[in-house]
Amino acid sequence: MKIKTAEFVISNSDYRICPAPKMPEYAFIGRSNIGKSSLINALVNHRNLAKTSGKPGKTQLINHFLINKEWYLVDLPGFGYAKIPKSLRAQFHDMISNYLTNRTNLMCLFVLVDSRHKPQAIDQEFMQWLAEKGIPFVIIFTKADKLGKVALNKQIEAYKSEMQKEWEELPETFVTSAEKKMGTQEIADYIEKLNPHFKKR
Q1: Is the dihedral of CA 143, 146, 149, 154 positive or negative?
Q2: Digit-coded pLDDT (tens) for 78-97
Q3: Are 130 and 109 in contact (CB under 8 A)?
Q4: What domains can be seen in the chain, in order of their start residue?
Q5: What angle do CA 186, 190, 193 make, to 5 degrees?
Q6: Is 142 buried (19+), middle (13-18) or exposed (0-12) by CB count in 10 A?
Q7: In what order do the strands lie in the sheet with 71-75?
Q8: Are residues 133 and 100 in contact, defined by beta-carbon separation less than 8 angstroms?
């Protein structure tokens, strides 16, 4: 798939205010400072579509973007905030879980993890919750340019091996670098492959 147009539609904190579910939708989520906004911008060839910041927690709403006038890309707030009040953390949790469990046109959730780190408990618990709720997801390894090729492959294999201790079958994975646009075409092609399976509710 070639991404030709990307336009902002709406930001909100309530899934009931999201655009009518008449087109397929793909959401991106990950821990704070995982490089989510940078990856989204690289994917859609738009430098400033998703707001980036050196300070974790820039994304605090459900952000909808219309891509190629055919499908929605959704930038979700990060999870695992260390520097926000518990009450706000709970608010984010409810906002995200309500969106994920009620958005009928959500085709796939892209869960971002840092390729440099071993599986984090918070990521694994979140993925387990997704599996229990029947929410389709894949894993995106970010910041691949920060490791050499051999080290990167070794790290990802170690990550998968650790996951296999708990998972019978692993979700599909993508290896990316926002800086080098590595993996972005593969993600776009994956979305293109899923789009025909969308059925209007």
Answers
A1: negative
A2: 776 545 556 555 666 788 99
A3: yes
A4: 6-197 (3.40.50.300)
A5: 140
A6: buried
A7: 6-12, 62-67, 71-75, 25-30, 106-114, 137-142, 173-175
A8: yes
Antiparallel, parallel or unpaired: β 173-175 and 137-142: parallel
Query: What are 128-182's pLDDT values in tens digits?
Result: 999 999 999 999 999 999 999 999 999 999 999 999 999 999 999 999 999 999 9
Q: Is 127 exposed, middle or buried (0-12, 13-18, 19+ CB in 10 A)?
A: buried
SS3 content of the chain, % helix, strand, coil (to 5): 35, 25, 40
Rounded CA Rg of the chain: 16
In degrees rounded to 5, what are phi and psi of residue 174? -130, 145
C-alpha to C-alpha distance for 174 and 162, rounded to whole angstroms: 17
Task: For residue 104, give the amino acid letter.
Answer: T
Spatial separation of the C-alpha atoms in residues 72 and 29, rounded to whole Å = 14
3-class secondary-structure state, position 185: helix
Q: What is the pTM of this model?
A: 0.91
